[in-house]
Amino acid sequence: MTDGILVQTREFSSLVTADLPQVRQQLLDLLCEVAYKEGNFTLSSGQQSSYYINGKQVTLHPYGAVGVGRILLSLLPEDTQAVAGLTLGADPIVTAVSVVAAYEGRAIAPLIIRKEAKGHGTQAYIEGLTLPANSSVVVLEDVVTTGGSAMKAVERLRDAGYVVEEVISLVDRQQGGGELYEREGLKFQAVFTIQDLQAHWKQLQA
To answer: What is the domain range of residue 97?
Structure first.
């Protein structure tokens, strides 16, 4: 089984060592190969869509996770003390960024935001280290559609006393999320837009 996984993923092993422009291109290849699908889908927002992006196929990929961590770390402001996101989509992303940061000599805490408060113990919404008040936290997402998931994370973090000024996503579907963040006074950037994925996917299908 292990040998089979190595064969399937070997072509993306350069995500660990390549320079960042190459890593970005490899991530685009990987997204188009394993995450992007066309068909009839219902999104978490309730919207119908002719395509679907399963970001976890990349963020939980043996090498994809490293590539995602490297790219997103490069986009973080220097004063970032933690990265956070709403479970489940953001869990592997914040972990990857934190681990890659540690290898580069930076201490960035990963925080996971529950959709509902824990039903026992501290009954907390936020899992991870308890940081000092006013710590700078950046919210991470795999795919942004309407922006609602990240905004839930932003609200929970701010309620806990943290400063959140930015959301970063691996992919932006460009269906209102960016506009929502702008209205809420948040900076927003995405590694890829849906146009990037669809254009490259068509090239690969040719």
So the answer is: 2-205
